[in-house]
Amino acid sequence: MSTEFLMGNEAIALGALDAGVNVVTGYPGTPSSEILETVARRREKENPDVYVEWSVNEKAALEVAAGAAYAGARTLVTMKQVGLNVASDPLMSLAYVGVKGGMVIVSADDPGPISSQTEQDTRTFAAFAHLPVFDPSSPEEAYRMIGDAFALSEQYGTPVLFRPTTRVCHGCAPVERTDKPLRNTPEGFVRDPARWVIFPRASYLNHIKLANRERELDEKFSAYPLNTAENTAGGRRAIACGGISYAYVKEALEQLGAENVPLLRIATPYPFPEQLTSAFLRDKDEILVAEELDPVIERALLLCCGRAHLPVTVRGKLDGTMPQAGENSVEQLRTAIAAFLGLPAPKAENRAEPPALPVRPPVLCAGCPHRASFYAVKRAMKELGQKAYFCGDIGCYTLGNAAPLDMVDTCLCMGADVTIAQGLRRVEKDAVCFSFIGDSTFFASGMTGVVNAVYNGTDIVLTVLDNSTTAMTGHQPHPGTGRTMMGEMTAKLSIERVLEALGVSSLRIVDPLDQAAAVDAVKAAAGERGVRALIFRSPCIAVTKPNATYTVTDACIGCGKCVRELGCPATVRQGKQVRIDPALCFGCSLCAQYCPTGAIVKKEVR
Amino acid sequence: MEQNRSILLCGVGGQGTVLASKLIAYAAMRGGLEVRTSETIGMAQRGGCVVSHVRVGHHINSPLIPRGSADLLLGFEPAEAVRCLPYLRRGGTAVVSRAPISPVTASLSGSSYNGADMLTYLAEQVENLIILDTEEIIVACGSPRVLNIALLAAAAKTDALGITPDELRAAVRERLPEKFHALNLGAIDYICRR
To answer: What pLDDT score does B92 carry?
Structure first.
């Protein structure tokens, strides 16, 4: 045994490596991205035979892994919860077809949400897809459960879902690793069309199998050591929980001096361990459910009580006792549990009201080329005096919505900028409809939207913000970067050649940091019809080095145009003038290009 | 058995809170203690508020520190220290950098945020308050990147961190790439001499 201090995502990666994983695929998304990155970083030392890739999107990741699992490989697929929506087409069918090698699909949920579009619950998805799901409460458990998930997957020939939440993914703890890691040698693909080719008749029979498996897994999970019934004789009022809420409940009970309260902890929410639960509920009057996102455990408890004719009152989200949305916390659960148990409410520490705090929303970095791209479009359309709409997408450039740029009118999901713009254009016949998409998102799910526009002859201006990386999630490579997660150099896919092949009506490539050229390009594209593509190409500041910094001379008249128009974090008002923070300035020169008195000058060339 | 210790680090994305929390965790583990931490990773890292929770001791459940129970608050920025003050327990210690970071929104609205109100409020509210003269330290050490180590060193000088300056030095030597040793060890020495 060796102990390492690991982030939950690292524990999941090493758990998979120690369980003999052969093929790892995924698409980046907070809070899941570090899992696959850890596999890539550690595979050389742990098991050089492991193959790892960032796939072009979650659907591709799942399908690549499914193919490998058909041939007997143990496979891990990683994504965030909204990525599971993209992968849902192959997932729903794969649940019927099954796998040969063990397959674990990690879909990280994000209560809050902290970095996501939705508060959807992978546990609910698991029930929808009839797939078993594991729900760890800590990095140590995540490490252990990954091994259990692989074993279950192979035993039942089914993909298994695994859903950590942000606080497990991004929490760190000492994790004990086995010194006897498993290794799997794939048997290879055995042709068997009756098994690997999905047909209605086979699906009918597989559906029956899935339903029957649910009962079998109830029994198995009721005996699973991480589904626990604690202090069963501790009274008639009990608490149920799962995931990170287990850690919060334990701490809240300690603080309340109520450690002996009966506690049901569910680590496998689907199929639900009903036998364990019914036995636990037999002598209870009331149970309070502490869980985040959907009331999954709560519904299962109600079902359990109904089936076993148990007169237990179930309190949670459905009856309004617990909050419907957002994260749980020790404090909030302590208050809820105190009320539930009739204990005195913990008194809140009250301090004097603080002074008004500055608001600090996330912003585009100083020197970010997206700022220049958005500003060029904004300026061009203002100068043309034409009505325009700006459809945004998922990535750093969603931050273009903030003042003063205010350049994102819509944002829905990956790739939707291209197609929402088409829909707007069908109604707003006198508006120029722009779509803004990043390079990674373009490859992930933008291309089919472009095909749709070209095919249907819809007038849009497609703006690709190419910063040569997947910036928001931590600078992962993608098909346009020429680098793979195996450390190999590969052909760079050319966005312009793809667009040409898709048949866009015009194509312009400009450096957004050259504002005059960028504004001209936007004006020219706005004046045309068809699918006009504009590629704004300039690397993310995180993958390049600054070449200069800028400073403000006494010629500054304090008009504040730079601050008011561009909103760069490096430009700060100081008294009547503006100052550029040298620690933040990246030398993009955007402010210098617009200063009416030429007061912003290059200071040092790095 | 020593009580568990909870340390909250807060600042603005890019200030080095994550590295500081890793160093505390490493030094504590080296001392045979259990550690749990929780980090802000994702969109907030782009200039938003970031918070790291570090819990050290023998039996720790939650990776997040409940409000009113942090023993030590490391404020990398005055307003962020005020924002997170509800986490600090009565009688807890706060070590706060004097240098304000003005958000884009403040510059836009023309409001003048300079951190002074925040420091006054902290002085009224926190019994054990240490304010670091950030600019002076940066000039003396020759780099703005020493802020995180300077805060740790100032906390290590009191017993609020549960780690001695020497243990902090060892953590720097063992966890940071060698090219950063001189700068960071220099910052620890500078703080300890004061």
So the answer is: 95
Tell which of B107, B109, B174 to mutate to test the A interface (max A CBs under 10 Å).
B107
Alpha helices (runs of H) in A415-472, residue ranges in sequence order: 416-427, 439-441, 447-456
Nearest to A528 by CA among A401, A384, A408, A341: A384
Residues ≥6 apart with Cβ < 8 Å to A257: none
Q: Can you tell me the distance from the alpha carbon of A507 to that of A558, in angstroms, rounded to the nearest whole number?
A: 39
Average pLDDT over residues A246-256: 96
Taking 60 as the threshold, does the pLDDT of residue A606 lie above it? no
A230 touches chain B (CB under 8 A): no
Q: Tell me how crowded residue A352 is: count the other CB atoms within 10 A of its CB.
A: 8
Q: Which of B41, B106, B113 sits opposite A30 (nearest CB)?
A: B41
Interchain CB contact of B81 with A (< 8 Å): no
For residue B13, CA distances in Å to A29, A540, B16, B43, B66 come to: 19, 17, 8, 9, 22
Question: Mean pLDDT highest for which of A62-66, A352-356, B41-45?
Answer: A62-66
Q: Which of A349, A396, A569 sits opposite B104 (nearest CB)?
A: A569
Comparing alpha-carbon positions, the chain A residue that sits nearest to B43 is A115
Please state whether the peptide bond connecting residue A362 to the residue before it is cis, i.e. omega within 30 degrees of 0. Answer: no
Write down the pLDDT at residue B44. Answer: 63
Q: Reply yes or no on whether the pLDDT at B84 is more than 60.
A: yes
- Cβ atoms of A207 and A95 within 8 Å: the answer is no
State whether A174 and B34 contact (CB < 8 Å): yes
Question: Whole-angstrom Cα distance, residue B29 to residue B154?
Answer: 20
Nearest CB partner across the interface for B66, out of A170, A329, A355: A329
Give me the residues of A, 348-367, that contact B with CB < 8 A. 348-349, 351-352, 354-355, 357-365
Q: How confident is the model at residue A566 (pLDDT cuts 50, 70, 90)?
A: very high
The whole-model pTM stands at: 0.95
pLDDT over 70 percentage in chain A: 100
Cβ <8 Å between A358 and B113 = yes
Furthest-apart CA atoms within chain B: distance in Å: 53
Quickly state the pLDDT bin for B43 (edges 50, 70, 90): low
Contact A135, A296 (CB under 8 A): no
* Predicted local confidence at residue B1, as pLDDT: 38
Chain A environment of B79 (Cβ under 8 Å): 357-358, 360
Closest residue of A to B124, CA-based?
Answer: A352
